[in-house]
Amino acid sequence: MVPATIRLTSTLAPKEVANLSAVPLLMPRDFDLTSLRDLGIAVSNTPGAADAATANVAMYLLLGALRRAWIPSVALRKGEWRGRMGLGFDPEGKVLGILGMGGIGGAFAKRAAGFDFKVQYHNRRPVGPEKNLVGASYVSFEELLGTSDILSLHLPLTQATRHLIGSKEFGMMKDGVIIINTARGPIIDEQALVDALNSGKVFSAGLDVYEKEPEIHKGLVDNGSVILLPHIGTATYETQYKMEALVIENLRSAVESGTLVTPVAEQKKCKLQYD
Fold first, then answer.
1. What is the distance between the alpha carbons of residues 260 and 77, in angstroms, rounded to a whole number?
2. Average pLDDT over the chain, rounded to an integer
3. Mean pLDDT over residues 38-64, rounded?
4. Is residue 7 pLDDT above 60, yes or no?
5. Position 100 pLDDT exceeds 70
């Protein structure tokens, strides 16, 4: 088993690569796909298997962030009643902006609609009705930032999306915005998020992923307005089973036909070759 944090590059000899086994993961951000392609090695991931579980965690974080529920929770464990919790917000009528309307983003929109959010989204391109079951409005990136009461991130980490949300983008948002991230930590510039929280620009945040995990920015840990989870979006029995089953399907397909069931986008035309 290869740890999901290993970075595979062309420095690995083919013999070394041949000894690597399957790793269930959603987004192969730690793999040098170009080098693997050059070595004739195909890569698959587990899309769809974690959509529901990750969307559920995002919903948990969103509802908690609306109330800044971590503050009274910690107070109770200290023997205090409520602590300095202050008032929170109801979800009804709030504008929820979803950045990335793939499988997880769509599942999250479906759940949010049950709480009467007004849902809007931005994606590389508008999605069809089969992926937009709640009729969410498609808006530009700039409009999404400027008009959303809550911004929830559901997009992959690429060179283009690294630090996509930074000081400039926080400046474009409403005062008191809420940030949810269950996608990938480096999409947000964490120092910029800490600054926005400290200034009051961001009311609260719910995070399951971090820029340098497992390290978490001290400014986030020390801020009671932030709900923190240790990347548990897929940590359920059912979801792990679905992910592992899909890994096995890919392995079987590779052995029997030389192709993968769910190849990564960069390698959809890659065919395995055996001596």
1. 49
2. 88
3. 92
4. no
5. yes
Question: Residue 33: helix, strand or coil by DSSP?
Answer: helix
Compute the distance between CA of residue 270 and CA of residue 266 in angstroms, rounded to an integer: 9
Report the distance separating Cα 233 and Cα 239, nearest Å: 9
Q: Which of 143, 163, 231, 266 is catalytic?
A: 231
pLDDT of residue 35: 78
List the catalytic residue out of 184, 190, 211, 217: 184
Alpha helices (runs of H) in the chain, residue ranges in sequence order:
14-18, 33-38, 51-67, 70-77, 103-113, 141-147, 167-172, 190-199, 218-221, 237-257
Alpha-carbon distance of 77 to 164, in angstroms, equals 37
Q: What is the pLDDT of residue 267?
A: 75
Average pLDDT for residues 265-271, to the nearest whole number?
69
For residue 29, what pLDDT is reported?
55
DSSP category for residue 126: P
Catalytic residue among 37, 143, 162, 213: 213
Could you tell me the two tokens for 263? 């190849």
What is the distance between the alpha carbons of residues 184 and 162, in angstroms, rounded to a whole number? 9
Residues 6+ apart with CB under 8 A from 80: none
226 touches 218 (CB < 8 A): no
The tokens describing 228, both together, are 């923190």
- Tens digits of per-residue pLDDT, 162-205? 999 999 999 999 999 999 999 999 999 999 999 999 999 999 99
Cis bond upstream, residue 28 (ω within 30): no
Is 217 known to be catalytic? no
Which amino acid type is present at position 188?
A: I
**What does the buried/exposed string (b/e) look like for 238-268 if buried means 16 or more CB atoms within 10 Å of the residue's CB?**
ebeebbeebbeebeebbeeeeebbbbbeebe
Whether residue 213 lies in the annotated active site: yes
The two beta strands, 150-153 and 226-228, are unpaired
Residue 163 known to be catalytic: no
